[in-house]
Write a sequence for this structure.
């Protein structure tokens, strides 16, 4: 199959086609879209190019064997979970346990959690978000404002603030996570 | 406060264009394209982790090579179940295949015998 002919087809459609006729070609097109990303995720955790390549192959095998066993609804989230779990198992085998610096970054905002906020009035949510933003540490607050409200790129934020690019990314990511925690607390109280 | 605060928690399900991603890593995107990509990165946990990992690769030229190798491996893995299915089919219907082989053998023998007689 020429993969360029399928660029317009969404992941969900490819997945549906695979579940319909169990033709592995659909799975091939789908996984092909994620090769670079999977390699990147494995590199993040394993920090070794050869190990990352081997891990991507093992993830492929896992996906090929597991995907038929049950219905996967959100392919990207599922694939991400499979990849991260695989890398964490590799790290556990290597170190005996998962390094704490990595396990701390594992909490992500899930679709289900964001759904929780839908019942709250928009105005009220906006107020709660604004007050939560004020409670963040100054670096995280500054980076979130510059990125989301002033639409500055990472490099521009780095130039404006003097933070390194790594710091900027980390302040944005951690800022988002902390903002979510603060917001959830306020929502539960109100 | 600005409505754009809501963007902080938006999760993108846009398909990620691998060539755009490579251009981003190689610093080839324009200011606006770069911001759009970074917004996508911030909204997509998989992409965020991937970028962090890809930035650890010193020689970015190797990335395309790795992708090509992994692509070949992927298609090899995908072919295996097909071959297994074929073998399984043969195991499930051995008499059909034996009959076909027998008929073909008889045809070949008959052809050889007739040829022998004619000579």
């Amino acid at each position: 199959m020429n993969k360029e002919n399928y660029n317009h087809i969404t992941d969900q459609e490819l997945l549906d086609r695979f579940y319909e006729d169990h033709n592995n070609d659909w799975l091939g097109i789908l996984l092909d879209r994620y090769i670079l990303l999977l390699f990147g995720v494995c590199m993040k955790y394993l920090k070794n190019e050869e190990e990352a390549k081997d891990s991507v192959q093992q993830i492929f095998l896992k996906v090929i064997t597991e995907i038929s066993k049950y219905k996967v609804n959100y392919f990207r989230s599922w694939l991400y979970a499979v990849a991260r779990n695989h890398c964490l198992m590799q790290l556990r085998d290597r170190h005996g346990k998962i390094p704490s610096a990595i396990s701390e970054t594992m909490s992500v905002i899930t679709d289900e959690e964001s759904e929780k906020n839908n019942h709250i009035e928009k105005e009220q949510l906006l107020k709660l978000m604004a007050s939560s933003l004020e409670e963040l540490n100054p670096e995280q607050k500054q980076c979130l404002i510059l990125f989301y409200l002033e639409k500055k790129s990472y490099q521009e934020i780095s130039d404006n603030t003097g933070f390194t690019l790594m710091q900027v990314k980390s302040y944005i990511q951690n800022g988002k996570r902390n903002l979510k925690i603060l917001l959830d607390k306020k929502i539960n109280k109100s | 406060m600005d409505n754009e605060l809501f963007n902080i928690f938006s999760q993108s399900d846009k398909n990620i264009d691998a060539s755009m991603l490579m251009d981003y890593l190689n610093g080839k995107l324009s200011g606006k394209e770069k911001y759009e990509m970074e917004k996508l990165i911030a909204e997509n946990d998989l992409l965020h982790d991937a970028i962090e990992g890809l930035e650890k690769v010193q020689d970015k030229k190797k990335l395309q090579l790795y992708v090509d190798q992994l692509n070949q491996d992927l298609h090899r893995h995908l072919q295996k179940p097909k071959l297994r299915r074929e073998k399984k089919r043969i195991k499930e219907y051995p008499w059909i295949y034996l009959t076909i082989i027998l008929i073909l053998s008889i045809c070949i023998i008959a052809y050889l015998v007739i040829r022998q007689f004619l000579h």
About this structure: Chain A has two domains: 3-104, 111-189. The two ends of chain A are 54 Å apart (CA to CA). Confidence is low (pLDDT under 50) at residues 103-115 of chain A.
